UniProtKB/TrEMBL annotation:
One of its GO terms (molecular function) is ATP-dependent protein folding chaperone. Keywords: ATP-binding, Chaperone, Membrane, Nucleotide-binding, Stress response, Transmembrane, Transmembrane helix. This is Pyrrolo-quinoline quinone repeat domain-containing protein. Residues 67-79 have a biased composition (Basic and acidic residues). Residues 510-697 form the Pyrrolo-quinoline quinone repeat domain. InterPro entries: ATPase_NBD, Heat_shock_70_CS, Hsp_70_fam, PQQ_rpt_dom, Quinoprotein_ADH-like_sf, WD40/YVTN_repeat-like_dom_sf. The chain crosses the membrane at residues 440-463. The keyword Cell cycle does not apply. Residues 56-79 are annotated as: Disordered. PANTHER family: CELL SHAPE-DETERMINING PROTEIN MREB. Belongs to the heat shock protein 70 family.
Amino acid sequence: MAGPEGGYALGVDVGTSNTVAVLRWPDGRTRPLLFDGQPIMPSAVFLDDAGLHTGRDAQRLAQGDPSRYEPNPKRRVDEPNVLLGGREVPTADLLAAVLGTVARTAVEAVGFLPPAAVTHPAAWGARRRDVLIAAIARAGWPPVGDHGTKLLPEPVAAARYFAEVLRRPVPVGASLAVFDFGGGTLDIAVVRNEGSGFTVIGSGGVAELGGLDIDAALAEHLGRMLAPAYPQAWQVLAQPATAGQWRSRRQFWEDVRGAKEMLSRTAAAPVPVPGIDQAVHLTREELEQLVTPLLRRGVYEAAAVIGACGLTPSQLAGLFLVGGSSRVPLVARLLHADLGIAPTVLEQPELPVAEGALAELAPRSRAVASVPAVAATAQVTAPPFGPETAVAPTSGPGLPVSSVPVSPSGAPVSGVPGMPYSPAPPIAPRAPRRPIYRRPVLWVAAAVVALAGVVAAAALVLLGNDEVDFQPVAEVDRIEFPDPAPYWVYTDMVGDRAYLAFESNSKQLEILAVEPATAKVLWREKTLSTADRWDGIAALPNAVVAFQSSSIPSTQTRDMAVHDPANGKQMWHRLIAAGDTVYPFEDVLVLVEASEQRLIGLDLKTGKTRWEHQNPGKEQGLTGTAVYPVQTVADVSGPANAAGRPFAPVTDDDQRFVQIGADRSATVIDARDGKELKKRTNVANPTDEVVAYNGRLLVATAESGYRLSGYDLDTMGEPANLYTAPNPDHRLEVLTMCGETRACLLDSVGSDSKSTSVVAIDMEKGGELWRKPAPDADLIGHFGEQVVARATSGDNQFRIFDPDGNEILKREGAVGRVDSSNLLLFDEISPAADNYSVAGTHAGSAEVIEMGQLKDVKSETCSWNQAYIVCGGSEDFLVARFARD
């Protein structure tokens, strides 16, 4: 099929869901090949007696016999053969069919097959590339080699487009992040300009995240809306049985996809529904509400890949969005807000990889190598951004946020390092947002929680406190970083002791103990172990714990180092897995070893094993568990960050915890010696929503909406039925205690976040005390007898309700607890260094006391006590006073 070149060239991007090919003319013009009049061809393949069909023909033929259809052959690259209609077809033949269609289309356009370059994912090793090489040969293309068809990684092609077509500066030695969000997968890579070309220095991604997942979320949302009113019409679309019904389903999905694309340009879009006279309208707000949890996974993965390369987002020459799904405006907005770098995205993000591959077929442009080696700032070419979303960290530096494992299973979050604080579960949103820069791996937990719902206990502070005498922020001092300044910085505070930490050039974590009133450094020590990345520190009354990054393969281990708060010296350390979780008690750390399916009690001073328990259900082959330390009033009496994670956890009160087993058992265990105090069967699944507080165990089960039951922890006798949702449409979003005998929850109707309400429940008599609207709220917390409901997206507002449910204050921003009578109010919680306004308010008052700005800080890193606040910044740590001692 090869013919005279004539100055033509062809760049091909074979994607998981779609294939794009760009043809370059001898005069330098480029244009995409058109397949059935469209610049994008589905990568689908269908097999019948006539052979293999591709693209839209394959999609149409699949309506008659789906068993002969493979929509994503690239995803099957690890399998030697794919079964189609009872016949095994080599995977290379499926890819060859797609490439053959590209070749025939190119021949129709210019009369011959031009020299070509074909891209592949950066993560593909030699074996996967060999499958692609075989497919190229079987499609009749010239063999892969210096004088034949070229192969190059997709992010390298994207980077060459960025530098040579867009002419964005990428200095020699500088790096560019490529966020390739296609129909079926998300691939993320960092490439560096080596002078002679670009090299991939790190890659990652989410194999099961793409535009199809967004389509599915929209379709599911429409199903929840339509099924009650039009059950028969929806049944046809959900479970088609005839050829006509399959056609209706296909058309419906096409219309959903079209509406999604329209919503990238407009605020609303109609979706015609077969069997229903009037179209259903979707809004951009609905779309963003539905897909934010999905996209959050991609944002966390991007941070993880960048961090694994030893870079910060601010050190990148740019962040380039490619792939058709990148045109969803929320993608660029979330990346901008959370990474602090403005992405570049084009009107046709499907084309840059294929067009960038063309650079491989021409003499290398000097545009890449000759750019002066100075910092460059990528400009935003995405649709106009809305207000940046405030990052509400759900934990202190590098730590899970609460004793309630933040996962849909209620089990410790896989991949989450550190220490869910047993005494004080946080104010936690249904879609927890971690401090991305400090803990980039946490997208897994965040996305899953948001999709499935999360139990997030947040306890009310009942202990009385005087009103804090808020004063204008006064800088005590700034503690400078070494040169060059580190990017990854952490803080924590216990009483009158602040702990600061940063990742040093030696790859050790350097920890400082500081007296806030004077900013005097009391001691300064480095960890004995080294790591490319750390997850930060957890400060306890009698220990400071440092955690290496959990962004490691599940088969590897990382270091947990326990230091003496008196002098900073390491007392002991232990290697733990990425998914292991630790709960602190007075003199014991309870380690949940997910892979070994066991709990271990470790002596806090020596690290020696005191006791060990196998997870309930392990002998029966059941997996999964959830651990809930029993909270008391004292646990949540002190300062806590904007996500509710306490800075000074109380570990010397109730020493019990509850383990929920995969066999539905609930076991009350003494953390000091591992003794089983009480056990009851058939209580809850690890996936149920559970709170252990003030001698009670609350369990929420999804039965006709949801139902709340209560157990006495001392007896574990028969449960009391405390509350039942008004009807099956109601959904429990967040459950927490909000008084000694009162529980609060966020309740919404269906998937409509505008319907969200705060509901107060009587724990003694049962039943609803009051219900108040809190539109879009996804986070709930307490101070004194007040209840705080906050929306971490949308208008980003919080509402404060008095004990009777009256709304006394509404304001944009975030809140952090000082004590049971006082709150700090921030205009924004963000990982970016900037000036942030801070204010204070007292329990029962609508007065807001403005206190000025915290200068050049990353507000998500701040920790405080009743008078002082410490924050990491771009060049130093800030120590400041905001109240009289």
